[in-house]
Amino acid sequence: MSAQQPISRARNERRVGQVVDVLIEGTKDGRAFGRSYAEAPDVDGKFDLEHAGSLAVGSYVPVRLIRAEEYDMIGELASSDSSI
């Protein structure tokens, strides 16, 4: 796994700034987490959304990717008129 970490982080860093649709899978303490069409459950990383408010589990929301980690992405809600 340690050999994969820099590769995964570099791949994720290339995605920073993009806006993607994210399926909300859960919420906790004002944060939400989910995945896009490109992330398989239980295999790939997830998206953590800062300042998520009260998003409904099961909803799709536009998310701007603002930071990359080794396996996960950190995002914020994007306006609904952002291009995806």
TrEMBL record:
Keywords: Ribonucleoprotein, Ribosomal protein, Transferase. It comes from bioreactor metagenome. GO terms for molecular function: 4 iron, 4 sulfur cluster binding; aspartic acid methylthiotransferase activity; protein methylthiotransferase activity. The keyword Ligase does not apply. One of its GO terms (cellular component) is cytosol. Its EC number is 2.8.4.4. Residues 13-79 form the TRAM domain. This is Ribosomal protein S12 methylthiotransferase RimO. InterPro entries: NA-bd_OB-fold (IPR012340), Ribosomal_uS12_MeSTrfase_RimO (IPR005840), TRAM_dom (IPR002792). Pfam families: TRAM_2. The keyword Nucleotide-binding does not apply.
